[in-house]
C-alpha cells in the first residue's frame, strides 16, 4: 500500500564540520498545487523544479487517473494537459495518495464538485489521519463521503451533481482544509468564501490568481476572508517551483548544531506564511543570515547561510507563529536540545495529527537521547543541554514520518553517541536527496539492516 520501500534503519554520528552549498529540492506544497491546478486548466501547463518526492509523484498519478495527461519531460520538468474545471473523469481504480495528507485532501476538494466518485487510500500513516476536517465542508457543496469510522481512509467521495457555493470558517488553522474548500469552489457557481482565524500558507490563493481565477483576500475582525469566484476558465501556466523552505530547515539546523559548520542553502522562499522557523532561530541567537535577498515570482527569496552557533538560548515561541512553521517543530526541538535553557512551544496541537503524533514522537525520541521534555495536549517544552550536550545513543522510531526521521538523524550528528532511526525510508516522500546532500556537506549517515 505504501509507496515507499521496506524499512531502512539509518544511523547518524558526529563527524567533522558541515561545509558547502546545499541545493534542496522543490517545494512540496507548491508542487502538489502545480499538478492539481495544471490538471484543472485548459491546455498545457509546464512545470520546472517539481519536487520528485513520493508524495508529489502520487499526486501526479492521481491527476492522470482523473483524466489529465501528465508527463515527465526531464528531471523536475513536467507537462500537464488539463481537462478544465469540472472536466475530471471517474477514476477506474482506487487513488492511493501514499503518505500525503496534502495530496489526498486537496484532491478530494478538487473532485468533490464534479459528478464522479473516487475512492482514496494511503499508507498506514495516512489511513490513521482525520479526513472529516475536509469532508465536513465538502458536504456543504453537496458532496458525500463514506469512509471508515472516525472519518478515516479508505474513503469514497461522491461528487456533487449540482454544487452550491459555500461560506465556511475553518475550525483549525489548516491550509489543507482552506485549499480543499477553494478547489471545490472552482466548480461551484457564484462565490465561495473561506475564512481562517490565523493566516496559513497561501500558495493555493497565489497560484489560483496566476491561473486567472478571481481570488480576493481581505483581513477582517475574524481573520482572513478569502473569496473565490467559481467556474473560471483556468489558463495554463509556466510554473517554476521554488526550493522548499521546510527541506532547507534540515541542513540549516544541522549547521547550527554541528561544531565548525558553515553551510549555504541558496534560493529559499521566505514567504511569511512559511518562514516562522528562521525568525525563531534568529531569536534563539542562531548565526543565520539571509544573503542576496530578492523577489522571484512575487515571493521573497534569499540564500540562507547557517554557521555553528554554540551560544543559542531557549525561547518562548509565540503560539500565533505556529501556522508559519508547523512542519518545523520537530527539527526546532533538536536545535532547542542543543541550546541553553528552556524552549517552550505552545499552540501546537495540530502536530498530533500529522504523519505521526509529532509531539509524542519527539518526546519519546528526545527522552531516549537523554533530553528532558514536557508535553501537554497543545504544547511541547525542551530543556536544552547546550551545544554538544545531547547524550544520544538511542534508536528512535520514525513512525512513517519523514520529518521525525530527518530530525533524529540530525540529532545524531551533534550528539555524544550516534542516533539511529528504525526506518529512514519515509524521507523519500519529501526530500529524496537528503542522504547524498548531507553526505556532500560532510555528514555521516550509514544504512544497516535493522
Ligand atoms: O497545504 C499544505 O501544503 C500543507 C499544509 C500543512 O498542513 P495543515 O493544513 O494540516 O496544517 C502542512 O503541515 C503540510 O505539510 C503541507
Ligand atoms: C505534514 C506534512 O505533510 P502532509 O500533511 O502533506 O502529509 C509534512 O510534510 O510535514
TrEMBL record:
Catalyzes the transfer of the enolpyruvyl moiety of phosphoenolpyruvate (PEP) to the 5-hydroxyl of shikimate-3-phosphate (S3P) to produce enolpyruvyl shikimate-3-phosphate and inorganic phosphate. 3-phosphoshikimate binds at residues 28-29, 33, 174, 176, 327, 354. Belongs to the EPSP synthase family. It is an enzyme of class 2 (transferase). This is 3-phosphoshikimate 1-carboxyvinyltransferase. One of its GO terms (molecular function) is 3-phosphoshikimate 1-carboxyvinyltransferase activity. The gene is aroA. Pathway: Metabolic intermediate biosynthesis; chorismate biosynthesis; chorismate from D-erythrose 4-phosphate and phosphoenolpyruvate: step 6/7. The keyword Amino-acid biosynthesis applies. It catalyses: 3-phosphoshikimate + phosphoenolpyruvate = 5-O-(1-carboxyvinyl)-3-phosphoshikimate + phosphate. Monomer. Its EC number is 2.5.1.19. It is found in: Cytoplasm. GO terms for biological process: amino acid biosynthetic process; aromatic amino acid family biosynthetic process; chorismate biosynthetic process. Pfam families: EPSP_synthase (PF00275). Phosphoenolpyruvate binds at residues 28, 101, 129, 176, 358, 403. Residues 14-436 form the Enolpyruvate transferase domain. Residues 1-25 are annotated as: Disordered. The active site is at 327 (proton acceptor). GO terms for cellular component: cytoplasm. SUPFAM superfamilies: EPT/RTPC-like.
Amino acid at each position: 500500500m505504501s509507496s515507499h520501500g521496506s524499512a531502512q534503519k539509518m544511523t547518524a554520528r558526529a563527524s567533522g564540520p558541515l561545509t558547502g552549498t546545499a541545493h534542496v529540492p522543490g517545494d512540496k506544497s507548491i508542487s502538489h498545487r502545480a499538478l492539481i491546478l495544471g490538471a484543472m486548466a485548459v491546455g498545457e501547463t509546464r512545470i520546472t523544479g517539481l519536487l520528485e518526492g513520493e508524495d508529489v509523484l502520487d499526486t501526479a498519478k492521481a491527476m492522470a487517473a482523473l483524466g489529465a495527461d501528465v508527463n515527465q519531460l526531464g528531471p523536475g520538468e513536467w507537462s500537464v494537459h488539463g481537462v478544465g474545471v469540472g472536466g475530471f473523469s471517474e477514476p477506474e481504480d482506487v487513488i492511493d495518495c501514499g503518505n500525503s495528507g496534502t495530496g489526498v485532501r486537496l484532491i478530494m476538494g478538487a473532485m468533490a464538485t464534479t459528478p464522479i466518485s473516487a475512492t482514496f487510500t494511503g499508507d498506514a500513516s495516512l489511513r490513521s489521519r482525520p479526513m472529516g476536517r475536509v469532508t465536513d465542508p465538502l458536504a456543504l457543496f453537496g458532496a458525500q463521503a463514506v469512509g471508515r469510522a472516525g472519518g478515516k481512509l479508505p474513503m469514497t467521495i461522491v461528487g456533487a451533481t449540482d454544487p452550491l457555493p459555500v461560506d465556511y470558517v475553518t475550525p483549525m488553522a489548516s491550509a489543507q482544509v482552506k485549499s480543499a474548500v477553494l478547489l471545490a469552489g472552482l466548480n461551484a457557481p457564484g462565490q465561495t468564501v473561506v475564512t481562517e482565524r490565523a493566516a496559513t500558507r497561501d500558495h493555493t490563493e497565489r497560484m489560483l490568481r496566476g491561473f486567472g481565477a478571481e481570488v480576493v483576500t481581505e483581513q477582517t475582525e475574524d481573520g482572513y476572508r478569502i473569496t473565490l469566484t467559481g467556474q473560471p476558465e483556468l489558463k495554463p501556466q509556466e510554473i517554476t517551483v521554488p526550493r522548499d523552505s521546510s527541506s532547507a530547515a534540515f541542513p540549516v539546523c544541522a549547521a547550527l548544531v554541528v561544531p565548525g559548520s558553515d553551510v549555504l542553502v541558496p534560493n529559499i522562499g521566505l514567504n511569511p506564511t512559511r518562514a516562522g522557523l528562521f525568525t525563531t532561530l534568529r531569536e534563539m541567537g542562531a548565526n543565520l543570515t539571509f544573503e542576496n535577498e530578492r523577489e522571484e515570482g512575487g515571493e521573497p527569496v534569499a540564500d540562507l547561510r547557517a554557521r555553528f552557533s554554540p551560544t543559542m538560548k531557549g525561547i518562548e515561541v509565540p503560539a500565533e507563529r505556529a501556522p508559519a512553521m508547523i512542519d518545523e517543530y520537530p527539527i526546532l526541538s533538536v536545535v532547542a536540545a542543543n541550546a541553553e535553557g528552556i524552549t517552550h512551544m505552545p499552540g501546537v496541537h495540530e502536530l498530533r495529527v500529522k504523519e505521526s503524533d509529532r509531539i509524542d514522537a519527539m518526546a519519546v525520541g528526545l527522552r531516549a537521547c537523554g533530553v528532558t521534555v514536557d508535553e501537554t495536549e497543545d504544547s511541547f517544552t525542551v530543556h536544552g543541554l547546550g551545544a554538544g550536550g545531547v547524550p544520544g545513543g538511542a534508536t528512535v522510531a520514525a513512525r512513517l514520518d519523514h520529518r521525525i526521521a530527518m530530525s533524529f538523524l540530525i540529532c545524531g550528528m551533534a550528539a555524544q553517541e550516534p542516533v539511529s532511526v528504525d526506518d529512514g525510508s519515509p524521507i523519500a516522500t519529501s526530500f529524496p536527496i537528503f542522504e547524498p546532500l548531507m553526505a556532500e556537506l560532510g555528514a555521516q549517515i550509514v544504512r544497516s539492516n535493522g
